Amino acid sequence: MLIKIIVVGLLAFMIYNLFRALFIMNKNDPDKPPMSKFIGRRVITSVVIILLLVIGIFTGVITPNPRPF
Question: What does the angle CA 48 – CA 10 – CA 47 come to, to the nearest 5 degrees?
Fold first, then answer.
């Protein structure tokens, strides 16, 4: 259950960074941080989510659905 909460929180953080980058791209204000900062955070967050899922599957915390055949 804890891993599900962590993954949902990381997904929310990823969406937040996506919209922050969108607003910075639209405003084009030189005083604000660059858009690549937020896009980079989004990429790192997605890598962390994938690693969490893979580690969870290998350790047995997450059980994937059985194959249909």
Answer: 20
- Number of alpha carbons in the 13 Å side-chain half-sphere of residue 28: 1
For 62, residues 6+ apart whose C-beta sits below 8 A from its C-beta are 3, 53, 56
| DSSP string covering 1-69 | -HHHHHHHHHHHHHHHHHHHHHHHHHH--TTSPPHHHHHHHHHHHHHHHHHHHHHHHHHTSS-PPPP--
For 19-47, what is each residue's pLDDT tens digit?
988 888 888 777 878 888 888 889 999 99
**Is there a contact between 17 and 39 (Cβ–Cβ < 8 Å)?**
yes
Q: What is the pTM of this model?
A: 0.78
